[in-house]
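Crash report, auto-generated. Payload:
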Amino acid sequence: MERELYLNPKELKRYKIGTGIGRFFTYLYVIIMAVFIVVPFLWMIFSSLKPTEEIISREITFLPRTWAWSNYSKLFTGIQSIDPYGQPYYSFKPIPFHWMFFNTIVVGFFTTAGTVVTTILAAFAFSRLNFKGRETLFTILLATMMIPGEVFVITNYMTLSRYTGWIKSANHLENYAALIFPFITSVFYTFFLRQTFKQIPNELYLAAKVDGTSDFKYLMKVMIPLSQATITTIIILSMIGTWNAYIWPSFVTNSIYTEQLLVSNGLMAGLRGASETTGPNSVLNLQLAASTMVTVPLLIIFFSFKKYILRGVSRSGIKG
Amino acid sequence: MLEYKKDGWKAALCLAPSLLLMCVFTFWPIINSFIMSFLNNYHFALNREDVYNTFMGVEKSYTYIMGGRFTGIGIQNFITLFRDKDFLMALKNTAFIVFISVPATVIIALLIAVGLNSIKAFRGFFQTIFFLPYVTNTIALGLVFNSLFHVDYGLVNKLFNLVGTSWINSGATWGRAMFVLFIYSIWDGLAFKIIVFLSGLQNIDKQYYQAAQIDATPRWRVFTRITVPLLSPMILYITITSFMGAFKVYSSVIGIFGTGRYGPVGNEKLLITIVGYVYEQFGVQGMPFGVGSAGSTVLFLIILLITLVQMQVSKKWVHY
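Recovered output after restart:
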């Protein structure tokens, strides 16, 4: 660093010591915070593999001494106990992961497909087509992003329960409809796509017009292929959104139909109340195994599509 | 610039799917929720026959509207709301999360981002770690924090030898439970903020730092005089979105107690939030939706107010 030569030797020494100390504390801080971030993940995974005796022991253990892989099969079979009257009951109910994963993927797929179609069309209109009131309409849509989505839940529940039989329906397809329909469009994704579409040069459009290409064909053959990265980001964020959706599904799905649950709701139903169990009855390890089951697919998605996810994040104010 | 013709009908066609869905699931809920909050004793029943059979003939003074009934127009719901100690508790809890957790998280995230930006070794590794919590499931990780702070088996109690200190189990005090929520909110909120700050830091012209280096400016002054002012639009953006997010806190509260409620067994409304309160008001047929809607109107007004205040603030100290 020849720039430091502007300083006299004494000043240079002080400056170097100063930056050295600064660097030391920077690393120290970053390492401490990294540990803070990682510990819950490791605690979750390791504790999910501990046998109950280790979970309830007074000793501080982080890694399991015995690796209890059977915890994961217990998630599916549950644990049966006998109550004081001699009746068998589940002290830990089996969690229907196969249904939860299947339902979430189905709902996520159709929600995402619907969202992609509606937002592409809307973004195309807002970025390429000429019509009266375009900017006003777009501003109104953007303004709705400020209103908390929680405000919508009550009315959407009322609307669906008045005009459809989808709410808490015993029918699989009706339950899917209630989970999918309110979410197949998104102002934020429309906005995000519009930004991308706007970057495509006008000349391409005019050239296509000269060649007699229809607007629809231009959208399909030019704009969509050129916006692949943005569309991929939308697909991933939308799928993750369904995976983590909790509030709306907990209102529209009847939790007694265990084959209709989505991931978060099934998880919550499986965990409910069980954190108070103590002693040899403690199922903390199974609960953490359930959390791991839900978290690991997300982490795999995250590592596979990090680039796309981060692209979306730096422009979004919403999580999941 | 070539002028192309108006394409009103094409735009209408492209926007139709989005706008129709939004009319039903976004615009109508906003209007309806606002109306409901001013209908006194508004009760909702699932269908017209229910309304008729349940309420007709019992109380002649009701007016029937939108699948429900009400006794008059006024501010009765807001009076009920502000006399309800649960709602006051919800305001207090939400305010704490907003005004204590959010600033803390923003500052911690800013320092991490600046730290990450200044180090060279293991930078990518640390980045990945800090981004990890971004995609996680709130319920699943809520349970992990529940288990970390578990009264008998939690890592925290074992590590600091706090045997019998109840954080989130029965007997937990408000302060302790809130501390767990505070830690979880920080953990959960860091990733998004770090990502945004890092992308902001990347856009700062390196010349400022080189100039500072020539003058041997201490790191701290570089941070307060260059980084923070140049990053102020990002800081404002993050603060606004985080405030909005924190006002809507719900799932993380449900998550850390693992009871499906807002508190430990025996004190289930300990950490109830505004959104939690709104949801409490409905679920059972014929519940007074008016009070819940009034709650969401209050939430909306608070968010609107905060946004306006922050816009004013941004004019004063944000450097673009």
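Post-recovery validation: Chain A is about 65% helix and 5% strand.
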